[in-house]
């Protein structure tokens, strides 16, 4: 509910803001008023009320403290201005503190805007609500007087609230009762039926924007109170999005195959690698030699007829071929590591043709 307002109007501007065209009958305790951008309960503010000492449409501008202290409060009790600085319009006719004030103790409060806080977990963000064209807002209010133990009379008031408009429900569920025109202010001051007056203000000329969180300090004052601030975008990243982002980055910037890094152990047996290479040759419709076809994993379309002695000879030749291939492979690996070093990278581009790894097909082709 409304607990902070901006009231920087001059005392002489208050009657005109409340649609009072004639001069006031009285200006009471107006010297206590201090304009402020950050007004809270306990502050002195000018209100417009009917002048009971005059006839007709007479009114008075009376400076009162915000925060109702009922007249039946004990004289020696310390006043608490935060206890009843607002009154719910839905129950105002039911509670003793307010019901007795409805016939003759109505008043108008003129402000240039009010503040409301949006709750977001443990954080609260204040917003400044005002009219788009800058004209003052007029709140419906009730006032009372109380005599303390020292014989001093204290005038206080409370601002009536209602359910929030459809446009402001996102911010808060309550808002002050705003009287939008002269007809409404006249009806309230004159004691007319109020059911149609105490409604949410639904017009689109009521606007808002976020302001500094320093508004939470009652002593914070000045134009900075109504300066619009840019809210930081909420970081909605989750741990799952973090891993997705990381995966995308790895795909966009893969590690080069020839990057200089420690050599990883060969996971496959060298014999299996040779067999895979022979299989690949077979898939390319290259007819393997009878010696290669003798391996049990390679099944040529026409199996050559050989005796046991010939099989042993082929096996020995195949084993010799494997030993020679392993020697060549180790030599090539040594050269690859040398090229991968910083000194060998430059020479690599010139000798690329000489450092190509031989395949099993080329090896047997040479023989």
TrEMBL record:
Transmembrane segments: none annotated. GO terms for biological process: protein-DNA covalent cross-linking repair; proteolysis. Gene3D superfamilies: SOS response associated peptidase-like. Residues 258-285 have a biased composition (Basic and acidic residues). One of its GO terms (molecular function) is single-stranded DNA binding. Residues 248-367 are annotated as: Disordered. The keyword Lyase applies. The keyword Protease applies. Keywords: Covalent protein-DNA linkage, DNA damage, DNA-binding, Hydrolase, Lyase, Protease. Pfam families: SRAP (PF02586). Belongs to the SOS response-associated peptidase family. This is Embryonic stem cell-specific 5-hydroxymethylcytosine-binding protein. It comes from Linum trigynum.
